């Protein structure tokens, strides 16, 4: 619907405001407020109604509403004294005061006159199912490519649009690509979870969102802690990743908090002041003196996660170390890092840029960690050039996979033994399928299976182990992660040989894993006992190994 009053035209469909021939810049919430007041003109709209419709009953201060009313009046050339269009009815609410005509057939202004990214229709929030967890996501943008945005440690996708700078930056990215944003499990609008899983299981939230919007492949962009998750996804799902963009990201958590004492300092803040916005200088020092941004940042904290959930998340994040998997990322990669980033050490960006094969590394000036604060145009330009400058090559024929090797001995089948053998093989196939494993093409005499995450491989191994024990049979299992051929034979594959070696070293009815596996499932609740440091012939190096102690499937 198009509303006409005085010299203004308000289009509720395209989410635009015009004064005569000029299109006006407008913040998303101010636009929503204007439309709401116009649609309810002639009556008083209470503060409660506004909070309910625009903020969806989330906790918002009267100061925030007053700020939006002030911005609306400024947009219309009005103020609190004249109250020409927006009148305050003290103790009751607000009323729009103007003669308004409605129409549906006034043509839009030429596209070349559209200069402001702020006038952007808010995208709808939907939910994708990742296992049994609902993941909140939004889709927007009109670019020719697809981009999935993986957020930092907490987020709230509705709240993104309440900060004008963030809304503008996202809108500018939306001009480059069709963008999907989401809240990771346990944060924002996504389901809360009793226990957060490890990085490899949370990575599956990306896949679930892509499936929900029917994306076979997309560019994956990870910011801060989301960069670790995005990098792991690119390594494990090369068939679904056109390219990888990392901003302010890291491979090792120590690039964020170098010591346990520093992390405990964050926990003290979370326990005493979470939701106040006082942490802003540690994320965007250039905005530290801005009261409106500080207020929004406090809301960002509160809506992103509860204090307990954030502490649990950070405890799990403190175990992140994906250094060993970086050489297995073969997707075109862009790494962007600000030289004086106050949150993530610059060496983290340099490590990513030097460890990912063929990565393009761009070091920008600035200290703000938040991508939508500071020299945002430089970041957007770098992303634009990367997205539209890639030369696509043939499909990759290797992928990062978790490989499970199981070895057992069954006597020559004779009647009863033959039936038991068939039952064992059936059980192995059942658990392989249950945990999304696949058979690997190789000539190994033992069973070799690949999984798209180490946690699934471990859960599968423990179920297999229980089944073998119920048959009073002995087995041993080894699990490692590395590159394997997707459709070709893996007879001489290094990952296969290493996993086979781990299997041979495992004790009877035990699961032996490499250090890389433990790093990737850190925080998932899977427990390990140290096996020791062993010289592995396949790798010609010493490697720290662990027994799986227990895990809750």
Task: Give the structure's gist in a few sentences.
With 553 residues, the protein is α+β, with helices and mostly antiparallel strands.
Q: Can you give a write-up of this model?
A:
This protein has 553 residues and is α+β, with helices and mostly antiparallel strands. The chain folds into 3 domains: 2-113, Arc Repressor Mutant, subunit A, CATH 1.10.10.10; 125-387, Alpha/Beta hydrolase fold, catalytic domain (Rossmann fold), CATH 3.40.50.1820; 398-550, Alpha-Beta Plaits (2-Layer Sandwich), CATH 3.30.70. It is built from 17 helices and 23 strands. It has an 8-stranded mixed sheet with strand order 9-10-12-11-13-14-15-16, sandwiched between helices. Strands 18-19-17-20-21-23-22 form a 7-stranded mixed sheet, sandwiched between helices. Strands 4-3-2-1-8 form a 5-stranded antiparallel sheet, with helices on one face. Strand 3 (16-19) and strand 4 (22-23) form a beta hairpin. Helix 1 packs across helix 3 (62-75), helix 9 runs antiparallel to helix 11 and helix 14 (416-434) packs antiparallel against helix 15 (454-470). The protein is elongated, with a radius of gyration of 27 Å. Residues 105-120 have low confidence and may be disordered.
């Amino acid at each position: 619907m198009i509303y006409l009053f005085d010299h203004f035209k308000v289009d509720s469909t395209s989410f635009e405001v015009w004064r005569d021939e000029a299109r006006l810049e407008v913040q998303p919430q101010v636009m929503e407020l204007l439309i709401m007041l116009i649609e309810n003109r002639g009556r008083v709209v209470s503060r409660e109604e506004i909070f309910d419709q625009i903020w969806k009953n989330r906790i918002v201060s009267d100061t925030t509403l007053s700020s939006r009313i002030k911005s609306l009046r400024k947009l219309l050339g009005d103020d609190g004294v004249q109250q020409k269009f927006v009148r305050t009815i003290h103790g009751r609410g607000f009323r729009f005061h103007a003669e308004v005509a409605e129409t549906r057939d006034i043509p839009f202004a030429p596209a070349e006159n559209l200069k402001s990214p702020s006038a952007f229709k808010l995208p709808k929030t939907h939910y994708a199912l990742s296992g049994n967890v609902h993941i909140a996501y939004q889709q927007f943008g009109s670019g020719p490519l697809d981009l999935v945005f993986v957020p930092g440690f907490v987020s709230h996708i509705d709240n993104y649009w309440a900060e004008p700078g963030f809304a503008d930056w996202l809108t500018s990215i939306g001009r480059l690509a069709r963008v999907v944003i989401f809240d990771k499990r346990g944060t924002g609008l996504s389901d809360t979870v009793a226990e957060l899983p490890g990085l490899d299981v949370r990575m599956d939230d990306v896949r679930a969102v892509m499936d929900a919007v029917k994306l076979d492949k997309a560019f994956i962009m990870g910011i801060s802690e989301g960069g670790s998750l995005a990098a792991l996804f690119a390594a494990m799902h090369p068939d679904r990743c056109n390219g990888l963009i990392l901003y302010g990201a890291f491979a090792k958590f120590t690039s964020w908090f170098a010591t346990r004492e520093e992390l405990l300092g964050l926990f003290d803040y979370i326990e005493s002041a979470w939701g106040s916005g006082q942490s802003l200088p540690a994320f965007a020092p250039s905005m530290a003196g801005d009261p409106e941004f500080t207020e929004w940042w406090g809301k960002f904290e509160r809506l992103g996660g509860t204090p307990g959930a954030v502490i649990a998340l950070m405890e799990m994040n403190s175990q992140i170390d994906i250094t060993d998997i970086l050489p297995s990322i073969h997707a075109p990669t862009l790494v962007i890092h600000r030289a004086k980033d106050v949150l993530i050490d610059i060496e983290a960006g340099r490590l990513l840029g030097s460890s990912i094969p063929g990565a393009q590394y761009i070091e920008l000036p600035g200290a703000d960690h938040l991508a939508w604060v500071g020299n945002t145009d430089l970041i957007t330009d770098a992303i634009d050039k990367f997205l539209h400058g890639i030369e696509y090559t043939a499909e990759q024929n290797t992928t990062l996979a978790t490989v499970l090797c199981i070895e057992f001995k069954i006597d020559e089948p004779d009647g009863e033994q033959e039936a038991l053998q068939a039952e064992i093989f059936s059980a192995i196939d059942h658990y392989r399928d249950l945990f999304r494993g696949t058979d690997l093409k190789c000539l190994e005499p033992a069973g070799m299976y690949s999984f798209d995450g180490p946690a699934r491989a471990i859960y599968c191994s423990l179920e297999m182990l229980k089944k073998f024990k119920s048959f009073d049979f002995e087995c041993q299992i080894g699990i490692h992660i590395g590159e394997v051929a997707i459709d070709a034979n893996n007879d001489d594959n290094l990952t296969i040989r290493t996993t086979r070696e781990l299997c041979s070293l495992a004790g009877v009815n035990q699961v032996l894993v490499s250090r890389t596996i433990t790093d990737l499932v850190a925080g998932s609740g899977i427990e390990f006992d140290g096996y020791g440091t062993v010289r592995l012939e396949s790798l010609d190096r010493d490697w720290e190994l662990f027994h799986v102690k227990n895990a809750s499937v």
